[in-house]
Each structure stands twice: as structure tokens, then as C-alpha cells.
Amino acid sequence: MSNSSEARSLHVHNAQPTAALSREAEGTAVQRSRPDRPTVSVIVPAMNEAKNLPFVLPFIPDWVDEVVLVDGHSKDDTVAVARALLPHIRVVVQPGKGKGDALRAGFSAATGDIIVMIDSDGSTDPREIGSFVRQLRSGAEFVKGSRYMQGAGSNDISHIRSWGNSGITWAVRVLFGGRYSDLCYGYAAFWRVLLPVLDLDSDGFEIETLMGIRALKAKLRIFEVHSMEHARIHGSSNLNAVRDGWRIFKLILRERFLRGSPNRRRVEQVRQSLARFWDGPFARGVSTH
């Protein structure tokens, strides 16, 4: 997979890789350095992932305040395994179907100031959570993982998924601006108070693209951080490249031509409420405004 090492955006900022200090250690230092540190909730949607959870949950940093598992009516021991691995984990039963539905249920249940979403199949590395939180503490409002930056990559993406992702990312850049490099990747983080601004209403995999578009339309401070996607350890994905790709393109057209932009006054009010958590504007990133 090709990587991009430059921040090439008017609205999206690309955080550069950090040497020497591990992501987890650096994230811990940021989290514990200030008395007004934000609390962090990690959302993990899961359906029949009992065999994969041992490769995910134990690697969530211990400074994370809350882990919410959203169970999609699993037929295996997903919930039992999760509770055995993390006795204090919160379990929410998904009300409907689809990844978007599961994530929205998790977001509604979360209590942390910061929400981080990861996958339960081992494809997203929980040890990278610190780099997402660090950018939010530095002034970002929405942080997206990218597999196309220096130090990033994927051991899992197929050629057809890569082509589809490139097409979707290009379409969003043309129609909405910004310079995302990777929209179809389920690793992201944002401030919980922004949920009414994002106003998420998708049930499927397209929710990942929807979040990125709504963040652009709201003119949020957006950062991308490098991330390494690993191959699913056990089982197979529910993603259908053709079906879900078509749903994403329909969503893009709907957002461009049928739906307006969020209320700017609400965005500014939220931004002011977050100022107490920030260590400094984009202290570790590259601004491209």
C-alpha cells in the first residue's frame, strides 16, 4: 500500500509519527499531566467475536476510563469473554442491525468526554488510542485514523476495497473540500459533546464516511493520524464491498444535495466548552490552514 507523508489539506491536519516514546506511554503522559483531563470512553461494536476479543480488549490502555462493548446479538460467548477479560466493561445490547446502529448505541451509552471507536476483530490496534486522544487534547475536534500516511499501512485491505476507498475519498474531497486521505476506516475519535452536531443517522458501514462528511460540513478542527490496520484474526468480515460501497455513494449524494450544514452557533458554543481540556492548539501536528 502506498503511504502519504505530507499534510495536504485545508481543513484536515495530518499528525506526524512520533519516535522513541511509545504511543501508549505518550498517551498516558498526556492523560495524567493535567487535573482537568477529559475522561475517555472506548466503543467496541462486536458480533460473534469471542475468539478475537482476547487480542483486543487487554491492549486497551489502562488510563481509559470506560470501555463499552456493543453486542450485536452474538450467538457465541462474546459477552462472557469480554467480561472475563475486563470485569468492569459495560455491555450494551444493540437495538437493531448494522455497524452504524451499533456505534450509535455505544455513543449514546458513553459517559466520557472523549469517544474513541475501534473494531473488535483485531484490525485496529488499541495501543494507538493515545495518539488519537493526544490530538484532541491539542485542539482537534475530530480525529480520523489513516492507513495512507507515513508510518501507516494495512495488512488487510483488498484491491477492490482500496480502489473503492480511493474513489469515495476523492468524491468527498471534490464535493465537500478538505483533504482526507482515508475515509473508509473505522478508527476515529471525537468529543462527545459534538454528537448533536454530527447528528449521526446511518445504520451500516457508511457511518464512518458520514462522520467525516458531517465534521467537514460543521467546519470542525479535523486531524488525521497514522494507523496500521491488521488482518482480522478469526472469522470473516460482514463488509460487502459492492453493496456497502453503493450505500456510501448514495449517502455522499444525499449529504451534498439534500442536507444542509450544522448550526454554526452550536458548533462555536461546543468549541468554547472544550477549551479547558486543550493543552495547546495542534501542539504536535502540522496545521495546513
UniProtKB/TrEMBL annotation:
Record keywords, A-Z: Transferase
Any Pfam family hit: Glycos_transf_2
Molecular-function GO term, any one: transferase activity
Signal peptide (from-to): none
UniProt keyword annotation of Isomerase present: no
Domain Glycosyltransferase 2-like positions: 41-172
Keyword Cell cycle: no
Region (Disordered): 1-36
Protein name per UniProt: Glycosyltransferase involved in cell wall bisynthesis
